[in-house]
Amino acid sequence: MKLNLNLKYAVLYSIIAIISVVFYIAFGHHLSRILESIVMNTGLEISEPLIYMSAFFVLFILTDKLYNLFTGTIANKSIEQKANQLIDSIDVKTQRESERMINALLVHLEAYRPYETSFVPTIIKTAVKVTLIIASLFFIDGFAASILLFTAPFIPLYYVLVGLQTQEESVKQATRFDNIGTLFLNLIRGKDTVKNTNSKETVIKRLEADNKGFVKETMHILKYAFQSTMMLEFITILGIGLVALEVALRIIIFQNISFYTAFFVLLLAPEFYNALKVLGTEFHNGKLAMGSFEKAEKIINKPKMNTSYRGKTESFAAEAESLSVGHGDKILLNNSDFTFSKTGLTAITGESGAGKTTLLRTLLGLHEPVSGQLNVLTKDIGYVSDQVYFSDTTIYDYVSANNHSEDEVHGILNKLKLSASIDNLEQGIYTPIVNHDIPLSGGEIVRLKMARVLINKPEIIIMDEPTEFLDAETEQLVMKYLTELKETSAIIAVIHRRQLLSIADSHYVLDNGELKRGDAV
Protein backbone atom coordinates (compact mmCIF):
# COMPACT_ATOMS: atom_id res chain seq x y z
CA MET A 1 0.00 0.00 0.00
CA LYS A 2 1.35 3.41 -0.99
CA LEU A 3 1.25 5.99 1.80
CA ASN A 4 1.20 9.76 1.27
CA LEU A 5 4.37 10.13 3.36
CA ASN A 6 7.91 11.25 2.68
CA LEU A 7 10.42 8.36 2.92
CA LYS A 8 12.48 10.22 5.53
CA TYR A 9 9.48 10.58 7.82
CA ALA A 10 8.41 6.99 7.19
CA VAL A 11 11.83 5.83 8.44
CA LEU A 12 11.62 8.10 11.50
CA TYR A 13 8.10 6.87 12.26
CA SER A 14 9.33 3.29 12.03
CA ILE A 15 12.35 3.86 14.28
CA ILE A 16 10.27 5.46 17.05
CA ALA A 17 7.63 2.73 16.73
CA ILE A 18 10.28 -0.03 16.94
CA ILE A 19 11.79 1.49 20.09
CA SER A 20 8.31 1.81 21.67
CA VAL A 21 7.31 -1.80 20.89
CA VAL A 22 10.67 -3.15 22.10
CA PHE A 23 10.11 -1.36 25.41
CA TYR A 24 6.63 -2.94 25.65
CA ILE A 25 7.97 -6.44 24.95
CA ALA A 26 10.74 -5.91 27.52
CA PHE A 27 8.09 -4.78 30.01
CA GLY A 28 6.05 -7.92 29.29
CA HIS A 29 9.13 -10.12 29.71
CA HIS A 30 9.94 -8.81 33.19
CA LEU A 31 6.27 -8.80 34.25
CA SER A 32 6.00 -12.46 33.23
CA ARG A 33 9.13 -13.34 35.21
CA ILE A 34 7.80 -11.57 38.32
CA LEU A 35 4.38 -13.27 38.14
CA GLU A 36 5.96 -16.67 37.52
CA SER A 37 8.09 -16.20 40.64
CA ILE A 38 5.05 -15.19 42.71
CA VAL A 39 2.64 -17.89 41.42
CA MET A 40 5.08 -20.77 40.96
CA ASN A 41 7.37 -19.80 43.86
CA THR A 42 10.56 -20.12 41.78
CA GLY A 43 12.60 -18.20 44.35
CA LEU A 44 13.46 -15.37 41.98
CA GLU A 45 14.51 -12.14 43.67
CA ILE A 46 11.93 -9.78 42.16
CA SER A 47 13.40 -6.42 43.21
CA GLU A 48 15.67 -6.12 40.17
CA PRO A 49 13.05 -7.33 37.60
CA LEU A 50 10.53 -4.98 39.24
CA ILE A 51 12.84 -2.00 38.62
CA TYR A 52 13.38 -3.07 35.01
CA MET A 53 9.66 -3.65 34.50
CA SER A 54 8.80 -0.18 35.84
CA ALA A 55 11.54 1.48 33.80
CA PHE A 56 10.50 -0.22 30.55
CA PHE A 57 6.84 0.58 31.19
CA VAL A 58 7.63 4.28 31.67
CA LEU A 59 9.86 4.28 28.60
CA PHE A 60 7.10 2.60 26.59
CA ILE A 61 4.58 5.26 27.65
CA LEU A 62 7.00 8.10 26.86
CA THR A 63 8.01 6.79 23.44
CA ASP A 64 4.37 6.10 22.59
CA LYS A 65 3.51 9.70 23.47
CA LEU A 66 6.53 10.90 21.51
CA TYR A 67 5.35 8.90 18.50
CA ASN A 68 1.89 10.48 18.63
CA LEU A 69 3.31 13.98 19.11
CA PHE A 70 5.87 13.63 16.32
CA THR A 71 3.49 12.08 13.79
CA GLY A 72 0.82 14.67 14.63
CA THR A 73 3.26 17.54 14.08
CA ILE A 74 4.45 16.18 10.73
CA ALA A 75 0.86 15.47 9.63
CA ASN A 76 -0.30 19.00 10.44
CA LYS A 77 2.64 20.46 8.50
CA SER A 78 1.71 18.26 5.54
CA ILE A 79 -1.93 19.40 5.68
CA GLU A 80 -0.77 23.03 5.82
CA GLN A 81 1.44 22.42 2.78
CA LYS A 82 -1.48 20.91 0.86
CA ALA A 83 -3.68 23.86 1.86
CA ASN A 84 -1.02 26.22 0.48
CA GLN A 85 -0.93 24.18 -2.73
CA LEU A 86 -4.68 24.61 -3.00
CA ILE A 87 -4.39 28.34 -2.44
CA ASP A 88 -1.62 28.54 -5.06
CA SER A 89 -3.96 26.74 -7.47
CA ILE A 90 -6.56 29.50 -7.30
CA ASP A 91 -7.14 30.84 -10.79
CA VAL A 92 -10.85 30.10 -10.89
CA LYS A 93 -12.85 31.25 -13.89
CA THR A 94 -16.38 30.85 -12.55
CA GLN A 95 -18.32 31.13 -9.30
CA ARG A 96 -18.96 27.39 -9.40
CA GLU A 97 -15.22 26.71 -9.48
CA SER A 98 -14.67 29.09 -6.56
CA GLU A 99 -17.29 27.22 -4.53
CA ARG A 100 -15.55 23.91 -5.26
CA MET A 101 -12.29 25.51 -4.20
CA ILE A 102 -13.78 26.58 -0.86
CA ASN A 103 -15.21 23.09 -0.33
CA ALA A 104 -11.82 21.55 -1.13
CA LEU A 105 -10.00 23.89 1.22
CA LEU A 106 -12.39 24.00 4.17
CA VAL A 107 -14.27 20.69 3.94
CA HIS A 108 -12.54 18.00 1.90
CA LEU A 109 -9.01 18.81 3.07
CA GLU A 110 -10.17 18.83 6.69
CA ALA A 111 -11.93 15.49 6.14
CA TYR A 112 -8.61 14.17 4.81
CA ARG A 113 -6.71 15.24 7.96
CA PRO A 114 -7.33 11.91 9.85
CA TYR A 115 -5.53 10.07 7.04
CA GLU A 116 -2.22 11.70 7.91
CA THR A 117 -2.78 12.30 11.63
CA SER A 118 -4.12 8.83 12.44
CA PHE A 119 -4.21 6.37 9.55
CA VAL A 120 -0.59 6.60 8.36
CA PRO A 121 0.92 6.50 11.89
CA THR A 122 -1.35 3.55 12.78
CA ILE A 123 -0.32 1.64 9.64
CA ILE A 124 3.37 2.00 10.47
CA LYS A 125 2.98 1.33 14.20
CA THR A 126 0.83 -1.76 13.55
CA ALA A 127 3.23 -3.15 10.95
CA VAL A 128 6.10 -2.74 13.42
CA LYS A 129 4.12 -4.13 16.36
CA VAL A 130 2.79 -7.28 14.68
CA THR A 131 6.20 -8.05 13.15
CA LEU A 132 8.07 -7.73 16.44
CA ILE A 133 5.42 -9.62 18.44
CA ILE A 134 5.41 -12.57 16.02
CA ALA A 135 9.22 -12.57 15.93
CA SER A 136 9.34 -12.59 19.75
CA LEU A 137 6.74 -15.37 20.04
CA PHE A 138 8.61 -17.62 17.62
CA PHE A 139 11.45 -17.63 20.16
CA ILE A 140 9.05 -18.30 23.05
CA ASP A 141 6.19 -20.43 21.67
CA GLY A 142 6.29 -21.40 18.00
CA PHE A 143 2.78 -22.90 18.11
CA ALA A 144 1.19 -19.63 19.30
CA ALA A 145 3.22 -17.64 16.79
CA SER A 146 1.97 -19.96 14.01
CA ILE A 147 -1.65 -19.39 15.05
CA LEU A 148 -1.11 -15.62 14.94
CA LEU A 149 0.61 -15.89 11.59
CA PHE A 150 -2.23 -18.01 10.16
CA THR A 151 -5.17 -15.93 11.42
CA ALA A 152 -3.67 -12.43 11.01
CA PRO A 153 -4.12 -12.14 7.19
CA PHE A 154 -7.90 -12.52 7.47
CA ILE A 155 -8.19 -9.13 9.21
CA PRO A 156 -6.30 -6.98 6.65
CA LEU A 157 -7.85 -8.93 3.76
CA TYR A 158 -11.34 -8.12 5.00
CA TYR A 159 -10.79 -4.45 5.73
CA VAL A 160 -8.95 -3.90 2.43
CA LEU A 161 -12.06 -5.12 0.59
CA VAL A 162 -14.35 -2.99 2.75
CA GLY A 163 -12.03 0.03 2.60
CA LEU A 164 -11.89 0.07 -1.19
CA GLN A 165 -15.67 0.15 -1.34
CA THR A 166 -15.72 2.85 1.33
CA GLN A 167 -13.41 5.09 -0.70
CA GLU A 168 -15.66 4.78 -3.75
CA GLU A 169 -18.71 5.69 -1.69
CA SER A 170 -16.80 8.57 -0.08
CA VAL A 171 -16.02 10.11 -3.47
CA LYS A 172 -19.73 9.98 -4.32
CA GLN A 173 -20.56 11.54 -0.95
CA ALA A 174 -18.05 14.37 -1.46
CA THR A 175 -19.46 15.03 -4.94
CA ARG A 176 -22.97 15.20 -3.52
CA PHE A 177 -21.75 17.64 -0.87
CA ASP A 178 -20.26 19.91 -3.53
CA ASN A 179 -23.51 19.84 -5.51
CA ILE A 180 -25.60 20.70 -2.46
CA GLY A 181 -23.23 23.51 -1.42
CA THR A 182 -23.15 25.04 -4.90
CA LEU A 183 -26.91 24.82 -5.33
CA PHE A 184 -27.54 26.33 -1.91
CA LEU A 185 -25.18 29.27 -2.52
CA ASN A 186 -26.75 29.90 -5.92
CA LEU A 187 -30.18 29.77 -4.30
CA ILE A 188 -29.16 32.38 -1.72
CA ARG A 189 -27.72 34.66 -4.41
CA GLY A 190 -30.77 34.27 -6.62
CA LYS A 191 -33.50 34.21 -4.00
CA ASP A 192 -35.23 37.18 -5.60
CA THR A 193 -35.12 35.51 -9.01
CA VAL A 194 -36.60 32.33 -7.55
CA LYS A 195 -39.37 34.35 -5.93
CA ASN A 196 -40.17 36.45 -9.00
CA THR A 197 -40.18 33.50 -11.42
CA ASN A 198 -42.19 31.19 -9.16
CA SER A 199 -39.38 28.61 -9.25
CA LYS A 200 -39.72 27.64 -5.60
CA GLU A 201 -41.03 24.12 -6.27
CA THR A 202 -38.32 23.38 -8.82
CA VAL A 203 -35.56 24.49 -6.46
CA ILE A 204 -37.04 22.51 -3.55
CA LYS A 205 -37.19 19.34 -5.67
CA ARG A 206 -33.57 19.78 -6.74
CA LEU A 207 -32.44 20.31 -3.14
CA GLU A 208 -34.40 17.29 -1.96
CA ALA A 209 -32.93 15.09 -4.70
CA ASP A 210 -29.35 16.05 -3.82
CA ASN A 211 -30.05 15.73 -0.10
CA LYS A 212 -31.52 12.24 -0.52
CA GLY A 213 -28.49 11.23 -2.57
CA PHE A 214 -26.12 12.56 0.10
CA VAL A 215 -28.01 10.71 2.87
CA LYS A 216 -27.99 7.53 0.79
CA GLU A 217 -24.22 7.64 0.27
CA THR A 218 -23.71 8.39 3.98
CA MET A 219 -25.87 5.42 5.04
CA HIS A 220 -23.90 3.14 2.72
CA ILE A 221 -20.69 4.25 4.39
CA LEU A 222 -22.16 3.69 7.88
CA LYS A 223 -23.30 0.22 6.79
CA TYR A 224 -19.77 -0.71 5.73
CA ALA A 225 -18.42 0.71 9.00
CA PHE A 226 -20.83 -1.42 11.06
CA GLN A 227 -20.07 -4.58 9.08
CA SER A 228 -16.35 -3.93 9.33
CA THR A 229 -16.45 -3.43 13.12
CA MET A 230 -18.56 -6.56 13.67
CA MET A 231 -16.33 -8.80 11.56
CA LEU A 232 -13.12 -7.43 13.11
CA GLU A 233 -14.44 -8.16 16.60
CA PHE A 234 -15.37 -11.70 15.55
CA ILE A 235 -11.98 -12.45 13.99
CA THR A 236 -10.13 -10.91 16.96
CA ILE A 237 -12.07 -12.94 19.54
CA LEU A 238 -11.59 -16.10 17.48
CA GLY A 239 -7.83 -15.55 17.16
CA ILE A 240 -7.32 -14.83 20.87
CA GLY A 241 -9.51 -17.85 21.71
CA LEU A 242 -7.36 -20.16 19.58
CA VAL A 243 -4.18 -18.92 21.25
CA ALA A 244 -5.74 -19.32 24.71
CA LEU A 245 -6.89 -22.86 23.79
CA GLU A 246 -3.39 -23.78 22.61
CA VAL A 247 -1.85 -22.48 25.84
CA ALA A 248 -4.46 -24.26 27.99
CA LEU A 249 -3.93 -27.59 26.24
CA ARG A 250 -0.17 -27.38 26.66
CA ILE A 251 -0.45 -26.45 30.34
CA ILE A 252 -3.16 -28.93 31.37
CA ILE A 253 -2.75 -31.90 29.03
CA PHE A 254 0.73 -31.85 27.55
CA GLN A 255 2.36 -29.96 30.44
CA ASN A 256 5.21 -28.80 28.22
CA ILE A 257 4.95 -25.04 28.71
CA SER A 258 6.08 -22.86 31.61
CA PHE A 259 3.97 -20.27 33.41
CA TYR A 260 6.30 -17.57 32.11
CA THR A 261 5.73 -18.64 28.51
CA ALA A 262 1.97 -19.04 28.93
CA PHE A 263 1.52 -15.61 30.51
CA PHE A 264 3.86 -13.90 28.06
CA VAL A 265 1.94 -15.40 25.12
CA LEU A 266 -1.43 -14.39 26.59
CA LEU A 267 -0.07 -10.87 27.22
CA LEU A 268 1.20 -10.34 23.66
CA ALA A 269 -1.57 -12.11 21.68
CA PRO A 270 -4.37 -9.64 22.57
CA GLU A 271 -2.02 -6.74 21.85
CA PHE A 272 -1.31 -8.31 18.44
CA TYR A 273 -4.99 -8.68 17.52
CA ASN A 274 -6.02 -5.34 19.01
CA ALA A 275 -3.40 -3.63 16.86
CA LEU A 276 -4.88 -5.27 13.78
CA LYS A 277 -8.40 -4.40 14.89
CA VAL A 278 -7.48 -0.74 15.39
CA LEU A 279 -5.81 -0.83 12.01
CA GLY A 280 -9.06 -2.16 10.53
CA THR A 281 -11.02 0.76 11.92
CA GLU A 282 -8.36 3.24 10.82
CA PHE A 283 -8.24 1.69 7.37
CA HIS A 284 -11.95 2.36 6.99
CA ASN A 285 -11.47 5.96 8.13
CA GLY A 286 -8.36 6.30 5.99
CA LYS A 287 -10.10 5.27 2.79
CA LEU A 288 -12.99 7.56 3.71
CA ALA A 289 -10.49 10.40 4.06
CA MET A 290 -8.81 9.54 0.76
CA GLY A 291 -12.17 9.83 -0.95
CA SER A 292 -12.37 13.43 0.25
CA PHE A 293 -8.75 14.12 -0.67
CA GLU A 294 -9.39 13.04 -4.26
CA LYS A 295 -11.70 16.05 -4.62
CA ALA A 296 -8.98 18.41 -3.34
CA GLU A 297 -6.21 16.67 -5.30
CA LYS A 298 -8.00 17.29 -8.59
CA ILE A 299 -7.68 21.01 -7.93
CA ILE A 300 -4.07 20.77 -6.71
CA ASN A 301 -3.06 18.82 -9.83
CA LYS A 302 -5.14 20.91 -12.21
CA PRO A 303 -2.91 22.44 -14.90
CA LYS A 304 -2.17 26.08 -14.24
CA MET A 305 -3.86 28.61 -16.48
CA ASN A 306 -1.57 29.50 -19.37
CA THR A 307 -0.35 33.10 -19.06
CA SER A 308 2.21 33.00 -21.87
CA TYR A 309 -0.19 34.99 -24.05
CA ARG A 310 0.36 38.07 -21.84
CA GLY A 311 3.31 40.21 -22.85
CA LYS A 312 4.56 43.71 -22.05
CA THR A 313 4.01 46.93 -23.97
CA GLU A 314 5.32 50.42 -23.32
CA SER A 315 3.20 52.27 -25.87
CA PHE A 316 -0.36 51.34 -24.87
CA ALA A 317 -2.41 50.29 -21.87
CA ALA A 318 -3.24 47.12 -23.81
CA GLU A 319 -2.34 45.88 -27.28
CA ALA A 320 -3.93 42.81 -28.91
CA GLU A 321 -2.58 40.86 -31.88
CA SER A 322 -4.89 38.32 -33.54
CA LEU A 323 -6.68 37.83 -30.24
CA SER A 324 -9.54 35.33 -30.04
CA VAL A 325 -11.60 35.00 -26.87
CA GLY A 326 -14.36 32.56 -26.04
CA HIS A 327 -15.73 29.71 -23.96
CA GLY A 328 -15.08 26.27 -25.40
CA ASP A 329 -16.37 26.20 -28.97
CA LYS A 330 -18.12 29.55 -28.63
CA ILE A 331 -15.94 32.38 -29.99
CA LEU A 332 -16.87 35.83 -28.63
CA LEU A 333 -13.95 37.80 -30.11
CA ASN A 334 -12.41 36.46 -33.30
CA ASN A 335 -8.84 37.22 -34.45
CA SER A 336 -8.95 40.84 -33.32
CA ASP A 337 -6.27 43.52 -33.31
CA PHE A 338 -6.75 46.61 -31.12
CA THR A 339 -4.94 49.08 -28.89
CA PHE A 340 -6.17 50.96 -25.80
CA SER A 341 -4.49 54.27 -24.92
CA LYS A 342 -2.25 54.71 -21.85
CA THR A 343 -4.55 57.48 -20.56
CA GLY A 344 -8.16 58.38 -21.13
CA LEU A 345 -11.43 56.49 -20.88
CA THR A 346 -12.07 53.68 -23.36
CA ALA A 347 -15.74 52.64 -23.44
CA ILE A 348 -16.85 49.20 -24.64
CA THR A 349 -20.49 48.55 -25.51
CA GLY A 350 -22.38 45.68 -27.04
CA GLU A 351 -25.38 43.44 -26.70
CA SER A 352 -25.82 41.30 -23.59
CA GLY A 353 -23.83 38.07 -23.96
CA ALA A 354 -21.56 39.50 -26.66
CA GLY A 355 -18.47 38.82 -24.52
CA LYS A 356 -17.67 42.22 -23.00
CA THR A 357 -17.06 40.92 -19.46
CA THR A 358 -15.04 37.98 -20.82
CA LEU A 359 -12.83 40.44 -22.70
CA LEU A 360 -12.26 42.42 -19.48
CA ARG A 361 -11.35 39.21 -17.63
CA THR A 362 -8.85 38.43 -20.39
CA LEU A 363 -7.29 41.86 -19.92
CA LEU A 364 -7.08 41.15 -16.18
CA GLY A 365 -5.44 37.76 -16.76
CA LEU A 366 -8.43 35.85 -15.34
CA HIS A 367 -9.51 34.25 -18.62
CA GLU A 368 -7.20 32.48 -21.03
CA PRO A 369 -7.85 33.42 -24.68
CA VAL A 370 -8.35 30.84 -27.40
CA SER A 371 -5.40 32.23 -29.36
CA GLY A 372 -3.40 35.37 -30.02
CA GLN A 373 -1.23 37.73 -28.02
CA LEU A 374 -2.18 40.39 -25.48
CA ASN A 375 0.43 42.89 -24.32
CA VAL A 376 -0.33 44.94 -21.20
CA LEU A 377 1.38 48.07 -19.90
CA THR A 378 1.56 47.10 -16.22
CA LYS A 379 0.39 44.75 -13.48
CA ASP A 380 -0.86 47.77 -11.51
CA ILE A 381 -4.52 47.23 -12.44
CA GLY A 382 -7.62 48.20 -10.47
CA TYR A 383 -10.82 46.27 -11.11
CA VAL A 384 -14.39 47.36 -10.40
CA SER A 385 -16.56 44.33 -11.07
CA ASP A 386 -20.30 44.28 -11.71
CA GLN A 387 -20.59 41.57 -9.05
CA VAL A 388 -20.86 42.26 -5.33
CA TYR A 389 -17.87 40.44 -3.90
CA PHE A 390 -15.73 41.24 -0.88
CA SER A 391 -13.25 39.03 0.92
CA ASP A 392 -13.48 38.77 4.71
CA THR A 393 -11.99 42.09 5.81
CA THR A 394 -13.10 45.49 7.11
CA ILE A 395 -14.27 48.53 5.16
CA TYR A 396 -11.04 50.34 6.06
CA ASP A 397 -8.79 47.46 4.95
CA TYR A 398 -10.75 47.03 1.74
CA VAL A 399 -10.55 50.67 0.69
CA SER A 400 -7.00 51.37 1.88
CA ALA A 401 -5.43 48.12 0.64
CA ASN A 402 -2.97 48.62 3.54
CA ASN A 403 -1.49 51.63 1.74
CA HIS A 404 -3.42 54.59 3.15
CA SER A 405 -4.13 56.20 6.50
CA GLU A 406 -7.48 56.41 8.27
CA ASP A 407 -7.72 60.13 7.41
CA GLU A 408 -7.14 59.42 3.72
CA VAL A 409 -9.86 56.75 3.74
CA HIS A 410 -12.30 59.10 5.47
CA GLY A 411 -11.42 61.75 2.88
CA ILE A 412 -12.22 59.62 -0.16
CA LEU A 413 -15.39 58.26 1.45
CA ASN A 414 -16.52 61.82 2.13
CA LYS A 415 -15.88 62.84 -1.47
CA LEU A 416 -18.08 59.97 -2.66
CA LYS A 417 -20.75 60.87 -0.07
CA LEU A 418 -20.35 57.58 1.78
CA SER A 419 -19.29 58.96 5.16
CA ALA A 420 -22.81 59.39 6.55
CA SER A 421 -23.85 55.80 5.80
CA ILE A 422 -20.62 54.26 7.10
CA ASP A 423 -20.43 56.48 10.20
CA ASN A 424 -23.91 55.26 11.15
CA LEU A 425 -22.56 51.71 11.38
CA GLU A 426 -21.65 50.65 14.92
CA GLN A 427 -17.96 50.12 14.07
CA GLY A 428 -17.71 52.74 11.34
CA ILE A 429 -14.97 52.12 8.79
CA TYR A 430 -13.82 49.14 10.87
CA THR A 431 -17.11 47.33 10.28
CA PRO A 432 -16.21 43.75 9.32
CA ILE A 433 -17.27 42.36 5.95
CA VAL A 434 -17.90 38.63 6.44
CA ASN A 435 -19.19 36.24 3.74
CA HIS A 436 -19.74 39.22 1.38
CA ASP A 437 -22.27 40.65 3.86
CA ILE A 438 -21.97 44.43 3.95
CA PRO A 439 -24.76 46.69 5.32
CA LEU A 440 -24.82 49.07 2.35
CA SER A 441 -27.14 49.53 -0.63
CA GLY A 442 -26.20 48.51 -4.17
CA GLY A 443 -25.28 52.07 -5.14
CA GLU A 444 -23.21 52.54 -1.99
CA ILE A 445 -21.32 49.32 -2.71
CA VAL A 446 -20.47 50.59 -6.20
CA ARG A 447 -19.15 53.83 -4.68
CA LEU A 448 -17.15 51.82 -2.12
CA LYS A 449 -15.47 49.96 -4.95
CA MET A 450 -14.84 53.26 -6.67
CA ALA A 451 -13.28 54.59 -3.45
CA ARG A 452 -10.72 51.78 -3.49
CA VAL A 453 -9.78 52.64 -7.08
CA LEU A 454 -9.72 56.40 -6.60
CA ILE A 455 -7.53 56.29 -3.48
CA ASN A 456 -4.99 53.90 -4.97
CA LYS A 457 -4.96 55.39 -8.51
CA PRO A 458 -3.61 52.38 -10.43
CA GLU A 459 -2.14 52.87 -13.90
CA ILE A 460 -4.93 50.83 -15.50
CA ILE A 461 -8.51 50.76 -14.21
CA ILE A 462 -10.90 48.16 -15.59
CA MET A 463 -14.59 48.64 -14.85
CA ASP A 464 -17.63 46.53 -15.56
CA GLU A 465 -20.79 48.67 -15.43
CA PRO A 466 -19.21 51.32 -13.12
CA THR A 467 -22.42 53.34 -12.72
CA GLU A 468 -24.77 50.38 -12.21
CA PHE A 469 -27.22 50.91 -9.29
CA LEU A 470 -26.35 54.64 -9.09
CA ASP A 471 -28.94 57.39 -9.06
CA ALA A 472 -28.49 60.37 -11.37
CA GLU A 473 -26.83 62.57 -8.74
CA THR A 474 -24.32 59.91 -7.65
CA GLU A 475 -23.62 59.00 -11.28
CA GLN A 476 -22.64 62.61 -11.97
CA LEU A 477 -20.37 62.51 -8.91
CA VAL A 478 -18.61 59.33 -10.08
CA MET A 479 -18.26 60.70 -13.61
CA LYS A 480 -16.61 63.81 -12.16
CA TYR A 481 -13.89 61.74 -10.51
CA LEU A 482 -13.49 59.47 -13.54
CA THR A 483 -12.92 62.59 -15.64
CA GLU A 484 -10.10 63.61 -13.29
CA LEU A 485 -8.67 60.10 -13.04
CA LYS A 486 -8.51 59.46 -16.79
CA GLU A 487 -5.93 62.26 -17.11
CA THR A 488 -3.30 60.05 -15.47
CA SER A 489 -4.70 56.51 -15.85
CA ALA A 490 -6.11 54.28 -18.56
CA ILE A 491 -9.76 53.52 -17.81
CA ILE A 492 -11.29 50.63 -19.77
CA ALA A 493 -14.99 50.33 -19.01
CA VAL A 494 -17.86 48.18 -20.18
CA ILE A 495 -20.93 50.40 -20.07
CA HIS A 496 -24.68 50.17 -20.68
CA ARG A 497 -25.73 53.64 -19.61
CA ARG A 498 -25.06 56.06 -22.44
CA GLN A 499 -24.28 58.94 -20.10
CA LEU A 500 -20.72 57.66 -19.64
CA LEU A 501 -20.04 57.96 -23.36
CA SER A 502 -20.06 61.72 -22.92
CA ILE A 503 -16.70 61.54 -21.12
CA ALA A 504 -15.24 58.64 -23.15
CA ASP A 505 -12.13 59.35 -25.25
CA SER A 506 -12.62 56.28 -27.41
CA HIS A 507 -15.53 53.90 -27.97
CA TYR A 508 -15.52 50.27 -29.14
CA VAL A 509 -18.50 48.06 -29.96
CA LEU A 510 -18.22 44.30 -29.50
CA ASP A 511 -20.56 42.66 -32.00
CA ASN A 512 -20.56 39.25 -33.72
CA GLY A 513 -16.99 38.48 -32.69
CA GLU A 514 -15.59 41.82 -33.84
CA LEU A 515 -14.38 44.78 -31.76
CA LYS A 516 -15.27 47.72 -33.95
CA ARG A 517 -14.33 51.35 -33.40
CA GLY A 518 -17.46 53.36 -32.52
CA ASP A 519 -18.01 57.08 -32.37
CA ALA A 520 -16.04 58.79 -29.60
CA VAL A 521 -18.33 61.36 -28.12
UniProtKB/TrEMBL annotation:
* Localization terms from the record: Cell membrane
Q: Per the database record, which ranges form the ABC transmembrane type-1 domain?
A: 10-288
Q: Which GO terms describe its cellular component?
A: plasma membrane
Molecular function (GO) terms for this protein are:
ABC-type transporter activity; ATP binding; ATP hydrolysis activity; ATPase-coupled lipid transmembrane transporter activity
Q: Give the superkingdom in one word.
A: Bacteria
Domain (ABC transporter) spans 318-521
Primary location group: membrane
Under InterPro entries, the record lists: AAA+_ATPase, ABC1_TM_dom, ABC1_TM_sf, ABC_transporter-like_ATP-bd, ABC_transporter-like_CS, P-loop_NTPase, Type_1_exporter
Designated name of the protein: ATP-binding cassette subfamily C protein CydD
Identify the species of origin: Jeotgalicoccus coquinae
